[in-house]
Specification:
Number of helices: 5
Radius of gyration: 18 Å
Helix content: 55-70%
Strand content: 5-15%
Order of helices and strands: HEHEHHEH
Shape: globular
Largest sheet: 3 strands, mixed
Low-confidence stretches: none
Mean pLDDT: 92
Strand order of the largest sheet: 1-2-3
Length: about 150
């Protein structure tokens, strides 16, 4: 959400929830934000593949990769070099003529080390939960905007 006053919140908490539940809720909340972005792309007609590269430090976590794959409903390729700055370096290589183009840079500099497939049943459940995520945002946004 492009809302600087938006705050994070945990809803539906009960005494049986543990630190692990809160950690997972944060991961799922971020993944729902990615799904919101995907839906915005789809609404504007911007095409995307059913497979994507996952980059950054979080890509090293099998749990994170699985949550993102399940929420987005797409397969995720983990790259050997997954630092986000590595992509900038490849772009610089293209712009300076080190590589003939983007395809050559990708072919020479990247190698898949894993593929995380989405679980269709979990994707169905996450889609139901996403509706709750949106409803919670809509209910709490007026409270946060007043502060």
């Amino acid at each position: 959400y492009a809302d600087p006053k938006l705050k994070a919140s945990f809803t539906g908490i009960h005494s049986g929830h543990t630190k692990a539940h809160f950690n997972r809720a944060v991961l799922e909340g971020v993944a729902f934000s990615l799904l919101d972005c995907r839906k915005a792309l789809e609404a504007t007609g911007i095409p995307h593949d059913n497979t994507a590269a996952i980059i950054g430090g979080g890509s090293q976590s099998p749990l994170w990769r699985q949550i993102v794959a399940d929420v987005l409903g797409i397969a995720l390729r983990q790259k050997e070099n997954s630092d986000s700055s590595f992509g900038a370096a490849m772009l610089a290589g293209v712009s300076t003529g080190m590589f003939a183009g983007y395809e050559e840079a990708l072919d020479r500099c990247t190698r898949d080390v894993s593929l995380t497939e989405p679980d269709t049943e979990k994707n169905r459940i996450y889609n139901e939960m996403f509706a709750d995520y949106k409803q919670i945002h809509d209910a709490l946004a007026p409270i946060y905007s007043g502060r």
